[in-house]
Amino acid sequence: MKQHIVRYTLGFLVLLVLLGHAARFYQFGFVSRLDAIIYDTKVRLTMPQSVDDRVVILDIDEKSLGEIGRWPWGRDRVSQLVNKLFDQHGITLLGFDVVFAEPDESSGLKVLDRLARSELKDSATFQAALQALRPQLDNDGRFIETLKGRPVILGYYLSNVKDGVASGALPPPALPAGSFTGRSIPFVTYLTHGGNLAEFQKAAFSGGHFNPLVDFDGISRRVPLLAEYKGEYYEALSLAMVRALIGQPKVVPWFPEDRWFSSRGYQGMEAIDLPTARGTLRIPVDDEVAVLIPYRGYQGSFRYYSIADIMADRIKPGELKGKIALVGTTAPGLLDLRATPVGEAYPGVEIHANLITGMLDGGIKLKPPYVLGAEVVLLLLAGLVMVLILPLLSPLRATLVSLVVLLFVVTVNLIFWHFGNLVLPLGSSILMVLALFALNMSYGYFVESKTKRQFTELFGQYVPPELVEEMSRNPESYSMDGRKAELTVLFSDIRGFTTISEGLGPDELTRLMNEYLTAMTDVVRKNRGTLDKYIGDAIMAFWGAPVSDAQHARQAVVTAMQMQAALPAVNKVFAAKGWPEVKIGVGVNTGEMTVGDMGSSVRKAYTVMGDAVNLGSRLEGITKQYSVGILVGETTRKAIKDIVFREVDRVQVKGKEEPVAIYEPIGLEGEIGKAAHEELKLWNQALRHYRAQDWDQVEVTLLNLSRMAPERGLYGKYMERVAHLRREPPEAGWNGVWKFESK
């Protein structure tokens, strides 16, 4: 036992760390991502992939926009649609996954009313004609009459936009304020809303929000069945439609009786009950009173009907009779496409359809609050077996035991999923098995001194010594093997180097380059950068590998600014030696890259490759086109919060099809003066005028900017470009993107 004390200690440490994650004392992003991947995989493998004919999607698609006109349509058209659906096709229930937030003024009634109050107020003929025409021209009034007495559920959205302005009316809440007094339930809470016009909401049967929850990875897996807004609790569109379908029962929160495995203080709300004369429909919810979306399959699990076909009477009689209908859109321009486990551009309206059928069929997976305890217990049992047994076994037997434990935790998880309809996280258990197996198999393989020596040999020429020391403490976390990762790359180059080199002898040029590269490399290493290579007078470096750095984008941009700041001191030394002054351009870009030890059998280097790397090089190359010292890519800009940037342009560089925005870092937030902020504000105005092709305004603004900062060459470059575009106007539909045909 004593000889295994280190392995026992390390094993228990691994188990405790993962138990902390499972118990939610803290969260590891990579474990959560693994859980999300496993959940999505189980959804895809077990979904029925059949079409449910009870619910149909009435699609505002490209065809409808082409035939009827751009959205939003006049309320007379919408009224006509509702009348057709109920009177001609006999649908049972209608839900709108759109908001009618503004009055319809397309008929001209507002103008006629103004004339009736002013120029034509004394014209009895006009007044009489207007009163006769008013019912036909009052599109909103027609829509209100269309809604009355019909089972129509209007949708609205809730929002957490700071300083957002609430608009429109909400339906009565499903549960009033104070419904959960004395209970601590972490409802999803919103700050503002966007609703329908009050007259519409009052005339409609009910309403529901259409807010899916977007998880950390951008995927929609849940919808808050009840959401808290100003202390009251509002139902989802799908719940409102199900309630309307089964007789509008009250919403009754369901709290289980004391469970044998839970504490006395357990307050978990595990379901919502909808009591009816034929029994109670129970809908399970998670700890945030949200439901897991029961995806039936990929897009198309419900029948789609183009609204253009309905309006043109191209739908067979009786085809929609008795259906639950949802009006929504798949048109990309209307922005209702969601990333889901079953599709990266999944129509939001089909999420509501899945929820409706899932509630009616009882097909919603359970993820009650006590799932946390179940995960901890399973993880603890499996972990104890591995921690205590593996150190005593041979490698072969340890491998077999690890496989058995892995199969056990996966099988138990799938049994709960399939037979118990219960969702249990699996990522922690899988990682625990793999981590304990790897720990026991690799223990003793590396000797600390040997590891440090290897790391020094492998990485010493690329990264600062302090990082090599840091890496050697956890050697298993670092490798020179190729991998994909989001990193940031930097390229710098001396401008006019050919001219400089022609004016110096070989010895002087060598000394100049040595001093220059030493000064710039010191800046890279000071900011924890990995020096990739020197390419003549150019420097290539990157951040985020081999040592992970969540601030890799910021480190690279700070390095670029410090390189430019170091140039005056370098040039002062050069001037004393009779050498020419040097200026540099720097390009920085962030993105997914392949990083690792690459090369031939003769020579290899730890480097990065990929489109993001190429774009970084292109950005450096076009700095001189804008007379700026540094250009960074759009992804880099988005990753940094405390540096002020100037948007320089939107460009399409050679070799790239997609345009990108490029930026110039100005300085750290808080270190930029008022004058610089005013200059930046004026420059942003110039860009807006430029992209709107308002050349006169661009030139006026650029002249003012040139007076404010005559040393800024960027403004002169844009003056030249505007003159060029006046002579050769851009083609129709020009979006402000400037194409570069050379590197």
How is this fold's topology laid out?
Elements: H1 5-22, H2 29-46, E1 55-59, H3 62-68, H4 75-88, E2 93-96, H5 109-117, H6 124-137, H7 139-147, E3 152-159, E4 188-190, E5 192-194, H8 198-203, E6 206-209, E7 213-214, E8 220-224, E9 226-229, E10 232-235, H9 237-245, E11 252-254, E12 271-276, E13 279-284, E14 290-292, E15 303-306, H10 307-311, E16 324-328, E17 337-340, E18 343-347, H11 348-361, H12 371-389, H13 395-419, H14 427-442, H15 448-459, H16 465-472, E19 483-494, H17 497-502, H18 506-526, E20 530-535, E21 538-543, H19 552-576, E22 584-599, E23 604-609, H20 611-621, H21 623-626, E24 630-633, H22 634-638, E25 643-652, E26 660-668, H23 674-691, H24 695-708, H25 713-727, E27 737-739
Parallel strand pairs: 1-15, 1-16, 2-3, 2-16, 3-6, 4-9, 22-24, 25-27
Antiparallel strand pairs: 3-5, 7-8, 8-14, 9-10, 11-12, 12-13, 17-18, 19-21, 19-22, 20-21, 22-23, 24-26, 25-26
Helix pairs in contact: 1-12, 1-14, 4-7, 5-6, 9-11, 12-13, 12-14, 13-14, 15-16, 18-19, 23-24, 24-25
Overview of this protein structure:
This protein is an alpha/beta fold. The chain is 43% helix and 20% strand. The chain is built from 25 helices and 27 strands.
